[in-house]
Amino acid sequence: MQFTSERRLDDSVIERAFNLGEIPGFLWTPASASASSPVPLILLGHPPLGLGRMYPRLVARALYSAADGFATATLELPGSGDRPRWPAVEQARAELRRAMEAGQPVSDEIVDALVLPLVDKAAPEWQAALDAVLSLPEIGGPVGYSGGVISIGIRLAVIEPRIAAAGLFAGSFVPRAVFEEARRVTVPLHVLLQWDDEGNDRQAALDLFDAFGSKEKSLHANMGGHTGVPQFAGEVAAQFFTRHLK
């Protein structure tokens, strides 16, 4: 991991851009973090829209988490931003768009082609980022995962023993194979669902929540569309991570 820039935000948070090989990312750390007082880490998941487009929302989440004493890190997803295009996934995304615009059901084949390659490639990259960030003396554990793509969060919760809790955003298509992985998730879960999310199959989201194998799991559903998450929902999620990571 090579840091490419550093600046202070609000005099209380240090933002560092980095490259993990050729993969860009960001690390936000409370200015108070040190080798003698390391802070827990939350990985910030996001949709494959590119870090440039997602940055305002990601930095807002990072500042909120830093106020609670957490460092946060995020990574550009495969095929997004300035990373090389991924023709097969772009074709699946176009087929998904055509089906939704035509009001047709989205087939399992389209969902698999869109999501499974992304999960298979992204999950090891997030693990490599976790290795690099946890090598810094001011970053300790435990580690949480927050956000989407929910299938990536599920895969990491299954394969990465350093993740102690996950806050997942319902709202993306989930392959049947990932449903089976969800049964193997055992970490505490906080799942956020927008009840009227225009891009989400509500019943599928409820079925996925039911499939999770965690003994402690809670579903927080709010009225409104995908971008209508109320502010208090973030406060409840912050309490979840404080409870499990501190």
Shape: globular
Mean pLDDT: 94
Write the CATH homologous superfamily. Answer: Alpha/Beta hydrolase fold, catalytic domain
- How many individual β-strands? 9
Task: Encode the helix/strand succession as letters.
Answer: EEEEHEHHEHEHEHEH
Number of helices: 7
Strand order of the largest sheet: 1-2-3-5-4-6-7-8-9
Binned, the helix content reads: 40-55%
Top CATH class = Alpha Beta
Strand content range: 25-35%
Question: Main β-sheet, in a few words?
Answer: 9 strands, mixed
Task: Note down, in words, how this protein is organized.
The protein is α/β, with parallel strands linked by helices and 246 residues long. It has one domain: Alpha/Beta hydrolase fold, catalytic domain (Rossmann fold, 3-Layer(aba) Sandwich), CATH 3.40.50. Helices cover 41% and strands 26% of the residues. Strands 1-2-3-5-4-6-7-8-9 form a nine-stranded mixed beta sheet, with helices on both faces. Strand 2 and strand 3 form a beta hairpin. Helix 2 packs across helix 3 and helix 3 packs across helix 4. It starts with a strand and ends with a helix.
